[in-house]
Amino acid sequence: MSTAILAIDQGTTSTRCILFDRANRLLASAQAEHQQHYPRPGWVEHDAMEIWETTQALIPQALAAAHLEASDIAGIGITNQRETVVVWDRRTGHSIHPAIVWQDTRTDELCKGLALEGGQDRLRAITGLPIATYFSGPKLQWLLDHVPGARERARRGELLFGTIDTWLIWNLTGGVHVTDPSNASRTLLMNLATLEWDEELLALMDIPRDMLPSIRSSSEIYGLATGPLAGVPVAGDLGDQQAALFGQTCFSPGEAKNTYGTGCFMLLNTGLERIESTHGLLTTVAYRFGNAPPAYALEGSVAITGALVQWLRDNLGMIQQAAEVETLATTVTDNGGIYIVPAFSGLFAPYWRSDARGAIVGLTRYVNKGHFARAALEATAYQTKEILDAMRLDSGQALISLKVDGGMVANDTLMQFQSDLLGVPVIRPEIIETTALGAAYAAGLAVGFWKDIDELKRLWQANHAWQPAMPASQRETLFAGWKKAVTKSLDWVE
To answer: pTM of this prediction?
Structure first.
Protein backbone atom coordinates (compact mmCIF):
# COMPACT_ATOMS: atom_id res chain seq x y z
CA MET A 1 0.00 0.00 0.00
CA SER A 2 1.30 3.48 -0.89
CA THR A 3 2.53 5.37 2.15
CA ALA A 4 3.67 8.77 0.88
CA ILE A 5 3.18 11.63 -1.56
CA LEU A 6 6.16 13.20 -3.32
CA ALA A 7 6.14 16.98 -3.75
CA ILE A 8 8.57 18.61 -6.16
CA ASP A 9 8.99 22.26 -5.18
CA GLN A 10 10.92 24.02 -7.94
CA GLY A 11 11.72 27.52 -6.70
CA THR A 12 13.66 30.52 -7.91
CA THR A 13 16.94 29.58 -6.27
CA SER A 14 16.62 25.86 -5.53
CA THR A 15 14.66 22.67 -6.04
CA ARG A 16 13.32 20.52 -3.21
CA CYS A 17 11.85 17.05 -3.21
CA ILE A 18 9.81 16.39 -0.07
CA LEU A 19 7.88 13.32 1.05
CA PHE A 20 4.77 13.53 3.25
CA ASP A 21 2.74 10.76 4.87
CA ARG A 22 -1.00 10.59 5.52
CA ALA A 23 -0.62 12.19 8.95
CA ASN A 24 0.91 15.32 7.40
CA ARG A 25 4.38 14.41 8.61
CA LEU A 26 7.42 15.39 6.59
CA LEU A 27 9.26 12.10 6.09
CA ALA A 28 12.34 13.32 4.23
CA SER A 29 13.56 16.04 1.92
CA ALA A 30 16.42 16.74 -0.46
CA GLN A 31 17.38 20.15 -1.76
CA ALA A 32 19.90 21.66 -4.17
CA GLU A 33 20.45 25.16 -5.52
CA HIS A 34 20.80 25.97 -9.21
CA GLN A 35 22.79 28.75 -10.80
CA GLN A 36 21.47 32.28 -11.26
CA HIS A 37 22.62 33.96 -14.47
CA TYR A 38 22.67 37.75 -14.95
CA PRO A 39 23.90 38.32 -18.52
CA ARG A 40 22.90 42.02 -18.52
CA PRO A 41 21.52 44.52 -16.00
CA GLY A 42 17.90 43.57 -15.30
CA TRP A 43 18.20 40.17 -17.01
CA VAL A 44 17.79 36.99 -14.94
CA GLU A 45 18.09 33.53 -16.47
CA HIS A 46 18.09 29.86 -15.42
CA ASP A 47 19.30 26.78 -17.26
CA ALA A 48 16.16 24.67 -17.68
CA MET A 49 18.21 21.57 -18.36
CA GLU A 50 20.10 22.10 -15.09
CA ILE A 51 16.79 22.36 -13.23
CA TRP A 52 15.57 19.07 -14.71
CA GLU A 53 18.88 17.31 -14.02
CA THR A 54 18.84 18.60 -10.44
CA THR A 55 15.28 17.31 -9.98
CA GLN A 56 16.29 13.90 -11.29
CA ALA A 57 19.15 13.74 -8.82
CA LEU A 58 17.05 14.82 -5.83
CA ILE A 59 14.22 12.31 -6.22
CA PRO A 60 16.30 9.20 -5.33
CA GLN A 61 18.00 11.15 -2.52
CA ALA A 62 14.63 11.91 -0.91
CA LEU A 63 13.43 8.32 -1.36
CA ALA A 64 16.62 6.94 0.17
CA ALA A 65 16.41 9.32 3.14
CA ALA A 66 12.86 8.10 3.83
CA HIS A 67 13.77 4.42 3.15
CA LEU A 68 11.05 4.27 0.50
CA GLU A 69 10.77 2.79 -2.99
CA ALA A 70 8.90 4.16 -6.00
CA SER A 71 6.14 1.64 -5.27
CA ASP A 72 5.52 3.39 -1.93
CA ILE A 73 4.63 6.68 -3.63
CA ALA A 74 0.91 7.28 -4.25
CA GLY A 75 1.34 10.37 -6.41
CA ILE A 76 3.54 13.29 -7.40
CA GLY A 77 2.62 16.95 -6.97
CA ILE A 78 4.43 19.81 -8.67
CA THR A 79 4.76 23.40 -7.46
CA ASN A 80 6.92 25.98 -9.16
CA GLN A 81 8.22 29.50 -9.65
CA ARG A 82 5.34 30.66 -11.79
CA GLU A 83 6.08 33.19 -14.53
CA THR A 84 9.48 31.82 -15.61
CA VAL A 85 9.42 30.86 -19.30
CA VAL A 86 10.94 27.83 -21.04
CA VAL A 87 10.76 27.08 -24.78
CA TRP A 88 12.04 23.72 -25.95
CA ASP A 89 12.27 21.49 -29.00
CA ARG A 90 9.39 19.01 -29.06
CA ARG A 91 11.60 16.29 -30.60
CA THR A 92 14.87 16.61 -28.68
CA GLY A 93 13.53 18.00 -25.39
CA HIS A 94 16.27 20.63 -25.30
CA SER A 95 15.49 24.23 -24.44
CA ILE A 96 16.32 26.69 -27.24
CA HIS A 97 17.32 29.54 -24.89
CA PRO A 98 17.95 29.96 -21.16
CA ALA A 99 14.75 30.18 -19.16
CA ILE A 100 13.71 33.81 -18.63
CA VAL A 101 12.97 34.22 -14.92
CA TRP A 102 9.98 36.03 -13.46
CA GLN A 103 12.29 38.75 -12.06
CA ASP A 104 13.68 39.58 -15.51
CA THR A 105 12.92 43.08 -16.88
CA ARG A 106 14.10 42.78 -20.50
CA THR A 107 10.51 43.05 -21.76
CA ASP A 108 10.09 46.57 -20.38
CA GLU A 109 9.97 48.28 -23.79
CA LEU A 110 7.77 45.53 -25.18
CA CYS A 111 5.33 46.00 -22.29
CA LYS A 112 5.30 49.76 -22.84
CA GLY A 113 4.34 49.12 -26.45
CA LEU A 114 1.50 46.80 -25.42
CA ALA A 115 0.24 49.49 -23.02
CA LEU A 116 0.31 52.35 -25.53
CA GLU A 117 -3.33 51.70 -26.43
CA GLY A 118 -5.46 51.44 -23.31
CA GLY A 119 -2.73 51.83 -20.69
CA GLN A 120 -1.14 49.39 -18.28
CA ASP A 121 -4.54 47.96 -17.26
CA ARG A 122 -5.60 47.35 -20.86
CA LEU A 123 -5.80 43.57 -20.34
CA ARG A 124 -6.89 43.50 -16.70
CA ALA A 125 -10.58 42.81 -17.44
CA ILE A 126 -9.60 39.63 -19.33
CA THR A 127 -6.57 38.45 -17.40
CA GLY A 128 -6.81 40.08 -13.96
CA LEU A 129 -3.28 41.40 -14.48
CA PRO A 130 -1.60 44.67 -15.43
CA ILE A 131 0.82 44.67 -18.35
CA ALA A 132 4.18 44.20 -16.64
CA THR A 133 7.56 42.56 -17.15
CA TYR A 134 6.64 40.09 -14.39
CA PHE A 135 4.37 37.94 -16.54
CA SER A 136 5.11 35.15 -19.01
CA GLY A 137 3.41 36.24 -22.25
CA PRO A 138 5.75 39.14 -23.08
CA LYS A 139 8.76 36.96 -22.15
CA LEU A 140 7.57 34.34 -24.63
CA GLN A 141 7.01 37.03 -27.27
CA TRP A 142 10.57 38.29 -26.66
CA LEU A 143 11.99 34.79 -27.18
CA LEU A 144 10.06 34.31 -30.41
CA ASP A 145 11.27 37.73 -31.60
CA HIS A 146 14.94 37.28 -30.68
CA VAL A 147 15.87 33.61 -31.14
CA PRO A 148 16.50 33.19 -34.88
CA GLY A 149 13.81 31.13 -36.55
CA ALA A 150 11.89 30.51 -33.31
CA ARG A 151 8.52 31.88 -34.38
CA GLU A 152 8.59 29.97 -37.68
CA ARG A 153 9.57 26.78 -35.87
CA ALA A 154 6.76 27.36 -33.34
CA ARG A 155 4.24 27.78 -36.16
CA ARG A 156 5.41 24.48 -37.65
CA GLY A 157 4.71 22.80 -34.31
CA GLU A 158 8.36 22.11 -33.52
CA LEU A 159 8.58 24.14 -30.31
CA LEU A 160 6.73 23.94 -27.00
CA PHE A 161 6.24 26.59 -24.34
CA GLY A 162 5.77 26.13 -20.65
CA THR A 163 6.30 27.58 -17.25
CA ILE A 164 8.46 25.39 -15.00
CA ASP A 165 5.56 23.16 -13.94
CA THR A 166 4.88 22.28 -17.57
CA TRP A 167 8.58 21.67 -18.21
CA LEU A 168 8.86 19.27 -15.27
CA ILE A 169 5.62 17.39 -16.01
CA TRP A 170 6.65 17.01 -19.68
CA ASN A 171 9.98 15.51 -18.63
CA LEU A 172 8.57 13.38 -15.81
CA THR A 173 5.87 11.80 -17.99
CA GLY A 174 7.80 11.52 -21.22
CA GLY A 175 5.82 14.13 -23.10
CA VAL A 176 2.50 15.14 -21.43
CA HIS A 177 2.18 18.88 -22.20
CA VAL A 178 -0.11 20.45 -19.57
CA THR A 179 -0.41 23.26 -17.06
CA ASP A 180 -3.06 24.29 -14.53
CA PRO A 181 -5.10 27.51 -14.17
CA SER A 182 -3.02 28.85 -11.27
CA ASN A 183 0.02 28.93 -13.55
CA ALA A 184 -1.80 29.82 -16.77
CA SER A 185 -3.42 32.80 -15.05
CA ARG A 186 0.07 34.35 -14.70
CA THR A 187 0.86 34.48 -18.40
CA LEU A 188 -1.28 37.43 -19.64
CA LEU A 189 -2.57 34.89 -22.16
CA MET A 190 -5.44 33.15 -20.31
CA ASN A 191 -9.02 34.38 -20.06
CA LEU A 192 -9.77 34.46 -16.34
CA ALA A 193 -13.47 33.71 -16.87
CA THR A 194 -13.19 30.78 -19.30
CA LEU A 195 -9.83 29.38 -18.10
CA GLU A 196 -8.81 29.02 -21.74
CA TRP A 197 -6.05 30.58 -23.82
CA ASP A 198 -7.47 33.78 -25.30
CA GLU A 199 -7.16 34.06 -29.10
CA GLU A 200 -7.18 37.88 -28.98
CA LEU A 201 -4.25 37.93 -26.56
CA LEU A 202 -2.32 35.34 -28.55
CA ALA A 203 -2.79 37.46 -31.67
CA LEU A 204 -1.72 40.61 -29.81
CA MET A 205 1.63 39.00 -28.91
CA ASP A 206 1.88 36.91 -32.10
CA ILE A 207 2.13 33.63 -30.21
CA PRO A 208 1.20 30.38 -32.05
CA ARG A 209 -1.50 28.50 -30.15
CA ASP A 210 -0.02 25.07 -30.88
CA MET A 211 3.03 25.68 -28.71
CA LEU A 212 0.95 26.22 -25.55
CA PRO A 213 0.10 23.43 -23.10
CA SER A 214 -3.43 22.26 -22.43
CA ILE A 215 -4.96 23.83 -19.29
CA ARG A 216 -6.12 21.12 -16.89
CA SER A 217 -7.32 21.32 -13.31
CA SER A 218 -4.91 21.65 -10.39
CA SER A 219 -5.69 18.19 -9.01
CA GLU A 220 -6.08 15.30 -11.45
CA ILE A 221 -3.93 12.58 -12.96
CA TYR A 222 -2.09 14.12 -15.94
CA GLY A 223 -0.06 11.02 -16.75
CA LEU A 224 2.24 8.40 -15.26
CA ALA A 225 5.88 9.02 -14.50
CA THR A 226 8.63 7.27 -16.44
CA GLY A 227 12.17 6.44 -15.31
CA PRO A 228 12.88 5.71 -11.62
CA LEU A 229 9.29 6.64 -10.65
CA ALA A 230 7.72 4.66 -13.49
CA GLY A 231 3.99 4.18 -13.06
CA VAL A 232 3.50 6.76 -10.29
CA PRO A 233 0.70 9.22 -11.17
CA VAL A 234 1.69 12.86 -11.67
CA ALA A 235 -1.48 14.31 -10.21
CA GLY A 236 -1.04 17.81 -8.76
CA ASP A 237 0.05 21.14 -10.24
CA LEU A 238 -0.06 24.52 -8.49
CA GLY A 239 1.97 27.68 -8.83
CA ASP A 240 4.07 28.14 -5.71
CA GLN A 241 2.00 30.86 -4.07
CA GLN A 242 -1.33 29.13 -4.73
CA ALA A 243 0.23 25.92 -3.40
CA ALA A 244 1.15 27.74 -0.18
CA LEU A 245 -2.44 29.04 0.12
CA PHE A 246 -3.60 25.45 -0.25
CA GLY A 247 -0.99 24.09 2.13
CA GLN A 248 -2.16 26.63 4.73
CA THR A 249 -5.71 25.25 4.22
CA CYS A 250 -7.05 28.70 3.31
CA PHE A 251 -10.05 27.19 1.56
CA SER A 252 -12.67 29.75 2.60
CA PRO A 253 -13.21 33.27 1.23
CA GLY A 254 -11.48 35.83 3.44
CA GLU A 255 -8.62 33.55 4.51
CA ALA A 256 -5.10 34.75 3.62
CA LYS A 257 -1.49 33.68 3.76
CA ASN A 258 1.85 35.35 3.16
CA THR A 259 4.90 33.49 1.89
CA TYR A 260 8.35 34.89 2.67
CA GLY A 261 10.84 33.59 0.14
CA THR A 262 12.99 35.18 -2.57
CA GLY A 263 10.06 37.53 -2.96
CA CYS A 264 7.00 37.96 -0.78
CA PHE A 265 3.53 36.92 -1.87
CA MET A 266 0.24 37.42 -0.08
CA LEU A 267 -2.92 35.72 -1.31
CA LEU A 268 -6.49 36.30 -0.13
CA ASN A 269 -9.03 33.63 -1.08
CA THR A 270 -12.08 35.33 -2.67
CA GLY A 271 -13.92 32.10 -3.51
CA LEU A 272 -16.02 32.12 -6.67
CA GLU A 273 -15.81 35.93 -6.91
CA ARG A 274 -13.30 37.54 -9.26
CA ILE A 275 -12.52 40.88 -7.62
CA GLU A 276 -10.95 43.34 -10.03
CA SER A 277 -8.40 45.26 -8.02
CA THR A 278 -8.31 49.05 -8.07
CA HIS A 279 -5.36 49.21 -5.67
CA GLY A 280 -2.55 47.53 -7.54
CA LEU A 281 -3.24 43.88 -6.73
CA LEU A 282 -3.59 40.94 -9.09
CA THR A 283 -6.71 38.86 -9.64
CA THR A 284 -5.62 35.27 -10.10
CA VAL A 285 -6.87 31.69 -9.98
CA ALA A 286 -6.24 30.14 -6.58
CA TYR A 287 -6.94 26.55 -7.67
CA ARG A 288 -9.39 24.35 -9.50
CA PHE A 289 -10.24 20.75 -8.68
CA GLY A 290 -11.58 18.46 -11.35
CA ASN A 291 -14.66 19.94 -13.00
CA ALA A 292 -15.56 22.14 -10.02
CA PRO A 293 -15.66 25.91 -10.52
CA PRO A 294 -12.34 27.60 -9.82
CA ALA A 295 -11.55 29.48 -6.63
CA TYR A 296 -10.05 32.93 -7.19
CA ALA A 297 -7.71 35.07 -5.13
CA LEU A 298 -6.36 38.58 -4.79
CA GLU A 299 -2.58 38.61 -4.75
CA GLY A 300 0.06 41.11 -3.79
CA SER A 301 3.50 40.32 -5.20
CA VAL A 302 6.74 41.78 -3.88
CA ALA A 303 9.84 41.05 -5.97
CA ILE A 304 12.61 41.28 -3.39
CA THR A 305 12.46 40.18 0.26
CA GLY A 306 14.62 37.15 1.05
CA ALA A 307 16.72 38.10 -1.97
CA LEU A 308 17.67 41.29 -0.09
CA VAL A 309 19.22 39.14 2.65
CA GLN A 310 21.07 37.19 -0.06
CA TRP A 311 22.34 40.51 -1.41
CA LEU A 312 23.72 41.46 2.01
CA ARG A 313 25.46 38.07 2.05
CA ASP A 314 26.68 37.67 -1.52
CA ASN A 315 27.23 41.24 -2.74
CA LEU A 316 28.20 43.11 0.41
CA GLY A 317 29.66 40.29 2.50
CA MET A 318 27.97 41.51 5.70
CA ILE A 319 27.00 37.95 6.69
CA GLN A 320 28.24 34.48 5.76
CA GLN A 321 24.91 32.64 6.03
CA ALA A 322 21.39 34.00 5.50
CA ALA A 323 20.34 32.94 9.01
CA GLU A 324 23.00 35.26 10.48
CA VAL A 325 20.97 38.32 9.47
CA GLU A 326 18.80 38.00 12.59
CA THR A 327 21.80 37.81 14.92
CA LEU A 328 23.26 40.90 13.26
CA ALA A 329 19.93 42.74 13.40
CA THR A 330 19.59 42.12 17.13
CA THR A 331 22.87 43.92 17.84
CA VAL A 332 20.87 47.16 17.51
CA THR A 333 17.49 48.23 18.86
CA ASP A 334 16.15 49.94 15.72
CA ASN A 335 17.05 50.70 12.09
CA GLY A 336 19.21 53.70 12.97
CA GLY A 337 17.04 55.89 10.76
CA ILE A 338 17.73 54.06 7.48
CA TYR A 339 15.33 52.40 5.07
CA ILE A 340 16.27 50.01 2.27
CA VAL A 341 13.87 49.97 -0.69
CA PRO A 342 14.91 46.82 -2.63
CA ALA A 343 13.58 47.83 -6.05
CA PHE A 344 16.34 45.91 -7.84
CA SER A 345 13.97 44.99 -10.68
CA GLY A 346 11.46 47.78 -10.18
CA LEU A 347 8.56 47.69 -7.74
CA PHE A 348 5.73 45.16 -7.98
CA ALA A 349 2.42 45.54 -6.10
CA PRO A 350 0.92 47.92 -5.32
CA TYR A 351 3.06 50.26 -7.47
CA TRP A 352 3.95 48.35 -10.66
CA ARG A 353 6.79 50.75 -11.42
CA SER A 354 9.50 49.29 -13.65
CA ASP A 355 11.32 52.66 -13.53
CA ALA A 356 12.12 52.25 -9.82
CA ARG A 357 15.50 51.06 -8.58
CA GLY A 358 16.89 50.18 -5.18
CA ALA A 359 17.53 52.96 -2.68
CA ILE A 360 19.09 53.28 0.77
CA VAL A 361 18.01 56.48 2.49
CA GLY A 362 18.63 58.13 5.85
CA LEU A 363 22.33 57.26 6.05
CA THR A 364 24.45 58.93 8.72
CA ARG A 365 27.84 58.12 10.30
CA TYR A 366 25.90 56.51 13.15
CA VAL A 367 24.67 53.65 10.93
CA ASN A 368 26.46 50.28 11.15
CA LYS A 369 26.03 46.74 9.80
CA GLY A 370 23.40 45.92 12.41
CA HIS A 371 21.21 48.75 11.18
CA PHE A 372 21.57 47.46 7.61
CA ALA A 373 20.47 43.99 8.73
CA ARG A 374 17.47 45.35 10.63
CA ALA A 375 16.48 47.65 7.76
CA ALA A 376 16.63 44.68 5.37
CA LEU A 377 14.24 42.67 7.55
CA GLU A 378 11.96 45.65 8.06
CA ALA A 379 11.75 46.23 4.29
CA THR A 380 10.00 42.86 4.02
CA ALA A 381 7.47 43.80 6.69
CA TYR A 382 6.77 47.24 5.20
CA GLN A 383 6.13 45.81 1.75
CA THR A 384 3.78 43.22 3.27
CA LYS A 385 1.82 45.96 5.06
CA GLU A 386 1.36 47.80 1.77
CA ILE A 387 -0.16 44.66 0.26
CA LEU A 388 -2.46 44.04 3.22
CA ASP A 389 -3.69 47.64 3.14
CA ALA A 390 -4.54 47.26 -0.56
CA MET A 391 -6.39 44.00 0.11
CA ARG A 392 -8.51 45.65 2.77
CA LEU A 393 -9.48 48.39 0.33
CA ASP A 394 -10.25 45.99 -2.55
CA SER A 395 -12.13 43.33 -0.61
CA GLY A 396 -13.67 45.38 2.18
CA GLN A 397 -12.46 42.70 4.61
CA ALA A 398 -10.23 43.38 7.61
CA LEU A 399 -7.90 40.49 8.37
CA ILE A 400 -7.99 39.25 11.96
CA SER A 401 -4.79 37.22 11.58
CA LEU A 402 -2.20 36.29 8.95
CA LYS A 403 -0.88 32.78 8.30
CA VAL A 404 2.77 32.86 7.25
CA ASP A 405 5.22 30.43 5.67
CA GLY A 406 8.47 30.29 3.76
CA GLY A 407 12.10 30.34 4.81
CA MET A 408 12.05 33.74 6.51
CA VAL A 409 9.38 32.80 9.07
CA ALA A 410 12.08 31.14 11.16
CA ASN A 411 13.23 34.71 11.88
CA ASP A 412 11.49 35.65 15.14
CA THR A 413 12.65 39.27 14.94
CA LEU A 414 11.04 39.73 11.53
CA MET A 415 7.82 37.98 12.53
CA GLN A 416 7.40 40.08 15.68
CA PHE A 417 8.01 43.28 13.73
CA GLN A 418 5.52 42.09 11.11
CA SER A 419 2.84 41.55 13.74
CA ASP A 420 3.62 44.93 15.31
CA LEU A 421 3.38 46.68 11.95
CA LEU A 422 0.12 45.00 10.88
CA GLY A 423 -1.54 45.14 14.27
CA VAL A 424 -2.79 41.53 13.97
CA PRO A 425 -1.48 38.14 15.12
CA VAL A 426 0.97 36.42 12.78
CA ILE A 427 0.66 32.62 12.83
CA ARG A 428 3.34 30.13 11.77
CA PRO A 429 2.20 26.55 11.02
CA GLU A 430 3.81 23.41 12.37
CA ILE A 431 5.03 22.56 8.86
CA ILE A 432 6.52 25.69 7.28
CA GLU A 433 7.11 23.91 3.95
CA THR A 434 3.54 24.77 3.00
CA THR A 435 4.30 25.29 -0.69
CA ALA A 436 5.43 21.69 -1.04
CA LEU A 437 2.62 20.57 1.27
CA GLY A 438 0.03 22.25 -0.97
CA ALA A 439 1.37 20.41 -4.02
CA ALA A 440 1.26 17.17 -2.03
CA TYR A 441 -2.34 17.88 -1.00
CA ALA A 442 -3.37 18.51 -4.63
CA ALA A 443 -1.85 15.22 -5.78
CA GLY A 444 -3.08 13.33 -2.73
CA LEU A 445 -6.68 14.40 -3.26
CA ALA A 446 -6.52 13.35 -6.92
CA VAL A 447 -5.36 9.82 -6.11
CA GLY A 448 -7.47 9.34 -2.95
CA PHE A 449 -4.53 9.52 -0.53
CA TRP A 450 -6.56 12.05 1.47
CA LYS A 451 -10.35 12.00 1.43
CA ASP A 452 -11.30 15.67 1.17
CA ILE A 453 -10.38 19.20 2.26
CA ASP A 454 -12.07 18.70 5.64
CA GLU A 455 -9.48 16.04 6.42
CA LEU A 456 -6.72 18.46 5.39
CA LYS A 457 -8.10 21.16 7.70
CA ARG A 458 -8.00 18.74 10.61
CA LEU A 459 -4.34 17.98 9.89
CA TRP A 460 -3.20 21.63 9.89
CA GLN A 461 -1.60 22.78 13.17
CA ALA A 462 -0.18 26.08 14.37
CA ASN A 463 3.39 26.19 15.70
CA HIS A 464 3.65 29.74 17.05
CA ALA A 465 1.74 33.03 17.04
CA TRP A 466 3.21 36.51 17.46
CA GLN A 467 0.99 39.17 19.00
CA PRO A 468 1.25 42.91 18.16
CA ALA A 469 2.86 44.96 20.92
CA MET A 470 3.92 48.21 19.22
CA PRO A 471 1.99 51.42 19.98
CA ALA A 472 -0.08 52.62 17.03
CA SER A 473 1.69 55.99 16.98
CA GLN A 474 5.10 54.33 16.58
CA ARG A 475 3.75 52.05 13.85
CA GLU A 476 2.40 55.01 11.91
CA THR A 477 5.65 56.99 12.22
CA LEU A 478 7.78 54.09 10.98
CA PHE A 479 5.45 53.37 8.07
CA ALA A 480 5.37 57.04 7.05
CA GLY A 481 9.17 56.91 6.84
CA TRP A 482 8.93 53.87 4.58
CA LYS A 483 6.44 55.57 2.25
CA LYS A 484 8.77 58.57 1.98
CA ALA A 485 11.71 56.26 1.20
CA VAL A 486 9.76 54.60 -1.62
CA THR A 487 9.34 57.95 -3.36
CA LYS A 488 13.15 58.21 -3.56
CA SER A 489 13.34 55.01 -5.61
CA LEU A 490 10.94 56.14 -8.35
CA ASP A 491 11.70 57.68 -11.76
CA TRP A 492 15.26 56.37 -11.71
CA VAL A 493 15.21 54.64 -15.12
CA GLU A 494 14.38 56.96 -17.97
So the answer is: 0.87
